[in-house]
Amino acid sequence: GELLTDRSWYYKVPLTKDIPIDFRIQLRRNSYNPIGTLGARAVAEPPTCLSISVAFALREAIVSSRENTGYPRNKWFRVDGPFTLAANVLSADVKLEEFLFY
Questions:
Q1: How many CB atoms lie within 10 A of CB 55?
Q2: DSSP state, 95?
Q3: 54 within a domain of the structure (yes/no)
Q4: Is 94 in contact with 65 (CB distance < 8 Å)?
Q5: Cβ-based neighbour number of residue 58 at 10 Å
Q6: Is residue 2 in a domain?
Q7: Annotated active-site positions, please?
Q8: Residues spanned by the domain of 79
Q9: pLDDT tens digits for 24-83?
Q10: Residue 1 resides in a domain
Q11: How far is CA 14 from CA 20, 45, 49, in A?
Q12: Positive or negative: CA dihedral 23, 20, 44, 79
């Protein structure tokens, strides 16, 4: 728990060998953390777990777009992160003939 590095240049990412051999924790039931955000004990886990839903939603939107252009729904395509606008447009693989202006 002690801060050993004060700059990002010297920061060393914790690895598996940094975990203590004897690592026992206890979760307190119905406790309040006075220094936590709004008294919460955990505010990072739900957003971290749910953040993957954004990537899944973008992929599903791309699948829907590809399906509208005639690709089968189950045809695999690769999208490397990050999901930038350019990556999404290229993954949709819209044919030039389908760009219509009304």
A1: 13
A2: -
A3: yes
A4: yes
A5: 16
A6: no
A7: 45
A8: 8-98
A9: 877 777 777 676 666 565 666 677 778 888 889 999 999 998 898 888 888 888 887 788
A10: no
A11: 11, 18, 20
A12: negative
